[in-house]
Each structure stands twice: as C-alpha cells, then as structure tokens.
Amino acid sequence: MIYYIFSIIFLLSIAPLLLGFIKSIQMLLFYKKMVSIFQPYRNFAKLLKKEVVISQESSSITKIAPFLVLSPLVLIVFFLPPIFGNAFYVSFMDAFTITGLIALSTFFLMLLGLDSGNSFGGMGSSREAFISALVEPAMILNMFSISMMAGDLDIAKAGVNLSSHFPVEHMSSFIFAGLSFFILLLTETGRIPVDNPQTHLELTMIHEAMILDISGFYLLLIEMAASVKFVIFASLFASLFMPIGLELSPIFALLVFIAKLFIIAIAVALIETNMAKLRLFKVPNLLGVAIVFAFLSLITFYVLEA
Amino acid sequence: MFQFDFLSLIFIALIILGFIPNFFYTLGYLPHIQRKSYFLIHYFAFVLSMIGIVISNNALVFLFFWELMSLTSWKLILTEANNEKSTLSAARFYFFMTHFGFVFLLLFFLIISDGNFELTFAQMSETASSFAYPTLLFFFLIFGFLSKAGAVPLHVWLPYAHPEAPSPVSALMSGIMLKIAIYGLFRFLFDVLYPWQLEWGVLILVIGSISSLVGVLYALSEHDIKALLANHSIENIGIILIGFGMGMIFDSLGFRTLSTFSFIAALFHIFNHMSFKSLLFMGAGSVLYQTKTKNIEKYGALIKSMPITAWTFLLASISISALPPSNGFISEWMTFQALLGSQNIADMSLKLAIPFAVFSLALTSGLAIACFVKAFGITFLGLHRSENAKHAKEVNGLMNFGMVLMALVVVSLMMFAPFYIYYFDQALLSLGKESVYGKIFVDGIFTLHSAGENGGVVSPVLLLGALIGITSLLIGVYKLLNIKTRIYRTWACGNRTASNTQYSATGFTGPIRRFFYWLYKPDESIKKDNIFGYETKFSTAEYKMHVTPLFEQSLYLAPAKAINIISFWIYKLAHFEKTRYVAMIFNLLLMVLFSYRNFVYEFSWATLILESIVMIISVKILVIGEK
C-alpha cells in the first residue's frame, strides 16, 4: 500500500519534470542555451501567484471545467500498472475506461474552448474534436490487443503479467502494438507532428487555442493536466511495452522506471526536433497508420499466433 | 390474450419510467399546442398502445396495438402542422415506412399462425419450427421491426419525422417507440424462432455496426437540433443491435454466459438510451419553445438564461457520449466487453471480423463526443447568435420538473445499475437463458465484472466517487488559496468578442466534414461581396452547406426516379403507340405461356431453344419494328 501511494505521488510530481526535460533536450539539439529542466515548476509557482481573469462573455462552465479537465487524468494515475513488483495496485481499468476518462477530460477542455465566444477557442475545440474522435478507435484496438497478449483485459494486471512472463512467441504483434501506441502517445499528448505545444500561431494551434482565455490558477490546472497526460502515456508505454525491471528490489525498480520515462522523453524530443508539424488534414493519415498497426497486431495475434 | 411475463414487465417499466417525466413536461408544453384535445387524445392512446404491445399474447392483439401505435404517432407528428409542407411530407414518409414494416409483420404472422390469429406466441413456435424456411421468417422480422426501430437502411424516416413532432412526442417516439420495436425482436426471436442460425446474429451485428456509424456521421452534419438527436437515435439503436447480435452469435455457438451478458448489455442500453434521449429531446424542446427556431446556428449563451435546461442537457450529453462514469458508459462498456468475449470463438473468420465491430463502436463513441460538444457548446455556450436566443427565458416549472425527473432517472440508472441488471438477468432467465448476475457482481455490487474469461472490471460508483472527491479537493485548494478573481474582457485577436467572431456549428464540424467528404458529398455554396474585384477581400461572406444522406440518395430517391422514368415511358407507349403496347402485352403473354411449359410442366432443351427463337422473332417484328 505504501508503494502504491508513493508511486502515485511520484508520478504526479515527476510529470512537469518530463516536459521540462523534453524542452531542454530540444534546446540542446537546436544549439540554444538549455533551459532548466525545472522550468515547468517555476511556471506553476508563477501561475499560482497570479490573479485569475475570467472572460466576461464566459459562463459557469469556465468556473468548473478546468477542475474537471484535471481530475479524470489524476484518477487514471490511480489505476496505472504498478512500478514496483508485488506492490498493491487497483485493477479497475480496461481499454474502454481509460479512453473514456481521457475523453471526459477532453470533453470539458473542448467546452472550455467554446465557452468564451473567442474564435480561437472554437477553432481549437473543432480541431481537437476531429483528432480525438479518430484517436479513440486506435487506442481501444491497441489496448485490446496488448491486453490479449498479456492474457488480461485489465491494464494494470496486463502490465504485471507482461513483466512476469513476457510473451516472446507474440513478439511481432507486440511490436505492431508498440508502434501504434507510440503514435498515439504523440497525438494524445499534443506533440509534433500533430500539435505543437510551443506555438501560438493561428494555423497550427490545437491545444493552446482552446486555453487562450484562461489564466492564473485555471491555467495552472490545465497545464498540469497536460503534463499528467504525458506521464500517463509515458508510464503506460513504459509498463506495457518495456516490461522489464519490475522484479528488482524497489530502489532499482524505481530507477529503471525513471530511466524508461526519460528514454521515452528523449525519443519524443528527437522526433519533435527532426520533424515538421503535419497539416491538420494529414493527421488522419498518421492516425490511420496507428489504426492499421493496431489491426495488424490483432490479426497477427489471432491468425499467426505470433 | 395478454401475458405478464418478465420481459413484458421490464418493458412496462421502461414505458412508465419514460412516460412519467414526459407527462409533466407535456403538461408544461401544452400552452404551446393549439389543438389541445386532439393532441391529448392521441398522446394517451399512443402510450396505451405501447403498453398494449408489450403485454399482448396473440397476433391479433399485437397487430392491433402495433397499428394503433403507428397511427397515433403519425397523427401526433401532424399536431403542429400549420399547412407546413415539410411536416406533411415527413408525416407521409413516416406513414409509408411504418406500413412497409407492417406488411412484413403481417406476412410473418400469416405464416406462423397458420391463419389462426388467436394462437398464443408459445403455440406459434410449433408451426415456426416445422416451417421449412426459418430464415425467411427471420427476414420478415428484420424488415418489420427494424424499419420501426430505424436501423440502416430503413432509418431514413427518423431525421424527418422526429423534428416535426412536438418535442414531448419526439422524446416518447425516440425514447420508447423505437425500443418497442426491439422488444418485438426479443419476443419473437426468443419465443417463436428459437434455435437461431449463426448468420442471423452476424447479420444483426453488421446492421448494428453500420447503423451506429451512419447515425453519428449524419448527426454531425445536421444543423437542426432535433434532426441531430434523431440521427443519434439511429446510432444508439445500432449500439443496442451490436449487443443483441453478439448475444445471438454467442448463443448459436454455445457460449451461454457470454450470450446472456450481451443481451443484458442490449437491454441496459435500451433503458439508458430511453433516459438520456428523452432528456435531450426535452432540453431541445425547451430551447425550441423559447427561441422558436430549430436551427442550432441561431442559439448560443442559453446556459445563462436557461440554467436548468442547460445542466440537464449537459448530463444527458455526457451520458450519450459514453463518458465514465455515466450510465451510457456502463452499457457501452458491457457491449464492448461482449465484443471482446469473441477471443474465445474458434471460427477464425468470425473472430477476425469482430474487431471491425469494435472499431466501429469505438469510432462511434469518439464521433459522438465531437457531436455533443457541438450540440452543447454551440447551443448553450458563447454569445447569442440571434435575437431569438437573446430573449430566451427559463421554461415553466412543469417542464423543468419533467426534465429534472428524467435527469433523476439517468442518475438512478447510473447509481443503481446492479438493481436494474438483476431484473434484466431475471427476465433472460425466464426466457431460458443462463443467469450471469453472480458472475457480473462477483465481489459485491460495487464492481462490474465482464462475464468473459479474463474480462475487464469497472466500478462506476467508485469512479464517480473518486471523480467527485478529486474535483472537490482541487476546488477546495482553489478556495483555500483565496486567489483574486476578476471578470474582465480577454484578448480576442484585437477585436471585441462579438457573436459573429465565434465558431459556428458548421465551422465546428468542418474538419470532420472534410475528412468524410467522400461520404457526405455536401451541396456547398459560397456567396461573397468582393471589394474592388479582389478575390481575397470581401465585406461579407456566406457559406451554406446541405448534406443529403447517401442512403436516401441511393435507396429512396434513385429508385423513385427510376420508377418515374419507367412509368413515363409506359404512359407514352400506352397513349401514343398503342400497337406496340398491344404487341408487348402479346409477347409478355407468350413468354408466360412458354416459361410455364418449360419450367413448370416439362423441361427440354430443344423446346427451350425453339421457343426462345420464336420469342426473339416475335419481339423483333412486333415490338422493335423495322429500325
């Protein structure tokens, strides 16, 4: 139980660090002066001190939506696969529940974008609705496939099963699912090539467009939600597709897990620096690849049993 | 004549749960209706006829109430017909479609009752089992009931009929009447046509998957809020049919627990769809009542003036989008688990096909979220888009009471899911299926388990509690920090935010419409007032778009056009070229005689060839002539 609580606190607190790490790696690759990896924490502290300006056009949705954007994502953290071997975990979450909870958070984010009557907000919501509708089937099929390889539909239990006896005979479908999931990781967390978290350019904004009107504590909540979403996907990828290190002693298991998270962050940073952002109407092609890989993974699992 | 078995009682409960909130809403809505006694008579007859259908036990009574339900609902659509052409044509279309289904039901009963319409359903099953072509009977049922339920391709009347009816009637029709058709499927497939073939279940699964996708895709392209909701009914009927089809597949393959689990998912979704769709139609009705328009582009900012309508509409939107921990989520989760139970099936082609149903269910729920962000966001958020929306007030107390009552039904379906599932399980048990209640709630009523091996687990109550807990913790932190809050203008690209700077509903679904352009094929028109002949500079611009559903185009309008052309040709022939017309009749007669001789009486190749030559010569000389 103590490990369970520790891992939740650990994941929630490391979340901003990962985004800061990605940012500083990018700066390094651009030959710029690196920002501190603790910059996101400083931003949060700054936002905490600022006053909240609420748009005069907005309604009561703006007053509750930021909280409801963050809380489903925090809830997911409680149900993630364990970091430590033999630790307590809650097995309440399968593919449909996790996509549902993420969609609940996105639902309120999109309403937030539409609430103030700003044209940017509507634009962001519209684009987000488009992309998240196409993400859903890929995510569900993918989770379905990986949990079948693990022999349990529950994600936390699947993570434990995969690490206790890795299905070497299903390697090919495992790799297909992994590729598909990595695309989803980039899409859902809003990184290049789908969305650029740094930009405030009208043509390319998705996530940032929805939250242009938000400030102060509300913005802090939404920024935190973005970082928690990244840590959720990174830790799912780490537990499901790099299932090693769970059987080590707690300290080493934690170190291995942190190393896995940072490897994912480096991979994301490398992709961000080396790729251009896709046009909005090319994004479905990328998601189509994710869906096809998820299907391929299922079909190879069923037909070839490989 | 009548029976009150468990299945009937379940559906009576459905009707009562849907009717009571609707009744209060109707009382509040009544001042809006001009022909009050006309409306009330048909309204009550409609509800009674639905109860009559679910308790009837022979063909005569069933068909009587079925026809009564069709006719009263048809008359109810015509309530607000102030000589509006759209209402009249929608009602005519509905009348035609419902009788199209009725013909097939009549055929079904004529065959299985052997002409004796007073046989009970249990006695009919003997005739049915001795009938040589059970698949024919199955198809009669499919046409008869699914044309009422609104499954693809017999769904085209829904987006026309529902918007034209008064809102409480739309709520009843969409919430309950469509489910009565599903009741028919339950009743006659279980009681009469019992040993099912595998293909039947597959067919229903395919219809369900296609319906769910088609419904949500056309809902996205709608501007009429009630037509949008009607399209969502098609989607939800699809989801119900996915559960139903999986149940039939599992049953014919011998997976008895999974079969019951799937049927429970379907029954639960029937209840859930009744609750949230009624609530949505009531909300749409209230908005319509206040703003006098159905066009979603004319709404906006109604949450400020109509808070109760807005919040209940939000609850229903969350539920219909299958977002956890709502009741819509629970039943879609169960449907999804039923689909995932397919991993145990041995038949490889079936096993590979079912992930496509998973795909369509997942894409449907993704698109439904987009659609309800649009429906809620454009209607209730932002700024007023028209004068009508500006003067909207909260509706009267009775209507609000009806909506709140229905919201309570939605919440109760979420909170007391185990209670409802227990009765669904009992109903299926009485129909000869295995009980799975013990398997679903293995450790207490707080967690739902899938009935499949290594199935998933979900705990809606725990999710709800945790969500409320975390959210109130965050709000508590916010309150504790005592942060200064100011309401002020925010940056809007240098302009003042005004109603025309917001995104419109058409704009909101723009990316999706563009991606599915091959399906929608919209009729677009852009009107611009260019300045000084510059292409890119204009003072005002107007973009209009209309989508004609593909099925309507190909299955209804195209055949109608073809029939028109043929009848015009025959008309020309009969009136202006009488000799050729007579010659054609003569040739037709000849062909009937020859084919009778050949195919029924006695077959020989020699006469066939000889007679074909005679036919060809006769057609050449008499009909075609010397061209």
What does the model show?
The complex is a heterodimer of chains A (306) and B (627). In chain A, 71% of the residues lie in helices and 1% in strands. Chain A is mainly α. Chain A has one domain (2-304). In chain A, helix 1 (2-29) packs parallel to helix 10. Chain A is globular, with a radius of gyration of 19 Å. Among the domains of chain B are: 1-195; 500-550, no CATH class; 551-624, no CATH class. Chain B has 26 helices and 5 strands. In chain B, strand 1 and strand 2 (457-458) form a beta hairpin. In chain B, helix 11 (256-291) crosses helix 18 (417-430), helix 13 packs antiparallel against helix 15 and helix 25 (578-601) packs antiparallel against helix 26. The radius of gyration of chain B is 28 Å and the shape is globular. Chain B starts with 5 loop residues before the first helix and ends with a helix. In chain B, 49% of the residues are buried. The mean pLDDT of chain B is 90. Strand 1 (52-55) of chain A pairs parallel with strand 3 (485-488) of chain B.
Would you kindly provide a brief summary of this structure?
With 306 residues, chain A is mainly α. Chain A contains eleven helices and one strand. Chain A has one domain.
